[in-house]
């Protein structure tokens, strides 16, 4: 089968299927069925939930969820395994232990969220700590009178490295990475470069146009009330990162006043941990543990056992899935959600996982702040 035929077949199948998780049966996108069985249980929803929980059973039939941070078909197996091991250790073990013992008062917050919170457990109101007359700079008196910035445990454990790098480092160009991907199926590099340049120009102009249109015509955009999930989690993270490292500043954020000074040790841990791993790899280059780890990776197995298929179809499969879901999603939004037609289509499969039914969707915290009180005081 030619690549074009394979692309067309995969595109059509994926395009047709996406109408189910994208509209007809949206619960397929967040298939956290334990939360449906115990919708009001905070612990069950925090452990198995995929909206604000840890996602212990991350089942989904939605490619847009699977490829949310990038297509897994294009990521090297050792990188996937590295992230997976880190996820299990830091999120499923360390975060759970800290969260349910209320370390750093995170028990009063959702298990995970793209938002930051005040010391009453509510979403942080940035307007309360900035002064419009001084070009929206931090007002120290207002900040001290209101609340320090608090966020969930996952960002508490990851933010010292991730968010600092996000603000201080330059994003590496994707051009070299795309050339690496193109080398395996032997795509001519000159043609690839032309496609990259044209794609960059078209995507830049279209992104700006879509952004301006969306901000003016999508009701409730970048809020929890936005239609079809346009809540802008990435933008919220970038904004909150700027709030923490820009307006509030690292000195106040890491102050002992709110207990975040302990995060400074993670810089030391992060600098030390690669050293023993490096020497183990040098000392035991063919050891069983390395072979076992690599052998568990799906990408390695497929590439090793079916190299011709992998070389010929892997990138085509990823492209077909990404493009079909993108086009189907845009079509569903423009024809159904934007016109309001979705209001006439409601059944169990479109509502079982949503806010009015599950604690996961509501973002319930493990502990409740007594009315009129604040935590961490």
UniProtKB/TrEMBL annotation:
<feature type="transmembrane region" description="Helical">
    <location>
        <begin position="6"/>
        <end position="31"/>
    </location>
</feature>
<keyword id="KW-1133">Transmembrane helix</keyword>
<dbReference type="InterPro" id="IPR004648">
    <property type="entry name" value="Oligpept_transpt"/>
</dbReference>
<dbReference type="GO" id="GO:0016020">
    <property type="term" value="C:membrane"/>
</dbReference>
<dbReference type="InterPro" id="IPR004813">
    <property type="entry name" value="OPT"/>
</dbReference>
<feature type="transmembrane region" description="Helical">
    <location>
        <begin position="257"/>
        <end position="281"/>
    </location>
</feature>
<dbReference type="Pfam" id="PF03169">
    <property type="entry name" value="OPT"/>
</dbReference>
<feature type="transmembrane region" description="Helical">
    <location>
        <begin position="73"/>
        <end position="100"/>
    </location>
</feature>
<comment type="similarity">
    <text>Belongs to the oligopeptide OPT transporter family.</text>
</comment>
<feature type="transmembrane region" description="Helical">
    <location>
        <begin position="192"/>
        <end position="211"/>
    </location>
</feature>
<protein>
    <recommendedName>
        <fullName>Oligopeptide transporter OPT superfamily</fullName>
    </recommendedName>
</protein>
<dbReference type="GO" id="GO:0015031">
    <property type="term" value="P:protein transport"/>
</dbReference>
<feature type="transmembrane region" description="Helical">
    <location>
        <begin position="287"/>
        <end position="303"/>
    </location>
</feature>
<keyword id="KW-0812">Transmembrane</keyword>
<feature type="transmembrane region" description="Helical">
    <location>
        <begin position="315"/>
        <end position="338"/>
    </location>
</feature>
<feature type="transmembrane region" description="Helical">
    <location>
        <begin position="43"/>
        <end position="61"/>
    </location>
</feature>
<keyword id="KW-0653">Protein transport</keyword>
<keyword id="KW-0813">Transport</keyword>
<keyword id="KW-0472">Membrane</keyword>
<keyword id="KW-0571">Peptide transport</keyword>
<dbReference type="GO" id="GO:0035673">
    <property type="term" value="F:oligopeptide transmembrane transporter activity"/>
</dbReference>
